[in-house]
């Protein structure tokens, strides 16, 4: 009898298209790129993990549900989370709300990609309202996953750069000599 076995890429094997894949740019900017996969379905976690390892991501963590992911985030924050939508006891939407809104969140802007079988318009709108970065329908093709990772990370990096530029601009003296823009606004409203 022939036994069927799911192929498991070795940790050292890189997807043959990785050099051309958009994720190569992400890894070049961050060689220690860390991804957490959150899904209550172990085979799905292993499949996504295999794809990520084949892309060249060396640090992949896994969590069974949103609550497990929150506990792991408090210990070590990944650069990106890929989460399922429907899990128990904490689903992907509640997990994202906790990351975005909880004052103890280590990174409220953490890029979060959701994988879901629920692609109805109402569900997608609900997903977008909680602040998920990207949405992918299951099953997840590797090329789409690489594109979504790249898009999520480029948007995140751009947001960080813009915030840094804004912070520098707010620290630099502007307008009337010896005053900042904030002081000018305060003076204006005092008239």
List the helices and strands and how they pair.
Blueprint: H1 23-29, E1 34-38, H2 42-55, E2 59-63, H3 66-75, E3 80-84, H4 92-101, E4 112-116, H5 121-129, E5 134-137, H6 142-171, H7 181-190
Parallel strand pairs: 1-2, 1-3, 3-4, 4-5
Brief account:
The protein is an alpha/beta fold and 191 residues long. The chain has helices at residues 23-29, 42-55, 66-75, 92-101, 121-129, 142-171, 181-190, and strands at residues 34-38, 59-63, 80-84, 112-116, 134-137. The protein has a five-stranded parallel sheet with strand order 2-1-3-4-5, sandwiched between helices.
Strand order of the largest sheet: 2-1-3-4-5
**Radius of gyration over C-alpha positions, nearest whole angstrom:** 21 Å
Residue share in helix: 40-55%
| Portion in beta strands | 5-15%
Order of helices and strands: HEHEHEHEHEHH
Low-confidence stretches: 1-13, 178-191
Largest sheet: 5 strands, parallel
End-to-end C-alpha gap: 90 Å
Contiguous helical run count: 7
Dominant shape: globular
How many strand elements?
A: 5
Helix/strand-derived category reads alpha/beta
pLDDT average, as an integer?
80
What does the model show?
The chain has 191 residues and is an alpha/beta fold. Helices cover 47% and strands 13% of the residues. It has helices spanning 23-29, 42-55, 66-75, 92-101, 121-129, 142-171, 181-190; strands at residues 34-38, 59-63, 80-84, 112-116, 134-137. A five-stranded parallel sheet has the order 2-1-3-4-5, with helices on both faces. Helix 5 links the parallel strand 4 and strand 5 (134-137). Helix 3 (66-75) runs parallel beside helix 4 (92-101). The longest helix has 30 residues, at 142-171. The chain starts with 22 loop residues before the first helix and ends with a helix. Residues 1-13 and 178-191 have low confidence and may be disordered.
